[in-house]
């Protein structure tokens, strides 16, 4: 298991998937070992995990669906080639 951070991140509304409550989600952000792109089912490393997956390989919708089926309570899609890793968000309301 590779825990990425113990920081708090602000979320943005995606154009797909369920909405987060006003309280957000609290969990451990972990990069799945079996598939770091999130394009396939993976073994849930722990309960209350937030999947950190990298861009590429399949659509964002596919990544979110596979990670939901793998037990993730939320999904963060980042770009490991940019400093800071998490640089993307959906412009939202």
Give the helix tally: 1
Q: Structural class, please? A: alpha/beta
Summarize model confidence as the mean pLDDT: 78
* Total number of strands: 3
Report the β-strand fraction as a percent range.
Answer: 15-25%
- How many angstroms separate the termini? 34 Å
Name the strands of the widest sheet in spatial order. Answer: 1-2-3
Indicate the percent of residues in helices: 10-25%
Q: In terms of per-residue confidence, which ranges show pLDDT below 50 for 5 or more consecutive residues?
A: none
Helix/strand order, N-terminal first = EEHE
Silhouette = globular
Taking all Cα atoms into account, the compactness measure Rg is 12 Å
The main pleated sheet reads as:
3 strands, parallel
């Amino acid at each position: 298991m590779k825990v990425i951070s113990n920081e708090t991140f602000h979320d943005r509304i995606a154009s797909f998937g369920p909405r987060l409550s006003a309280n957000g989600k609290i969990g451990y952000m972990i990069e799945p070992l079996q598939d770091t792109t999130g394009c396939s089912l993976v073994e849930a490393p722990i309960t209350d995990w937030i999947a950190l997956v990298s861009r590429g390989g399949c659509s964002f919708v596919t990544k979110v669906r596979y990670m939901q089926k793998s037990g993730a309570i939320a999904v963060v899609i980042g770009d490991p080639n940019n400093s800071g890793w998490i640089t993307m968000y959906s412009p939202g309301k």
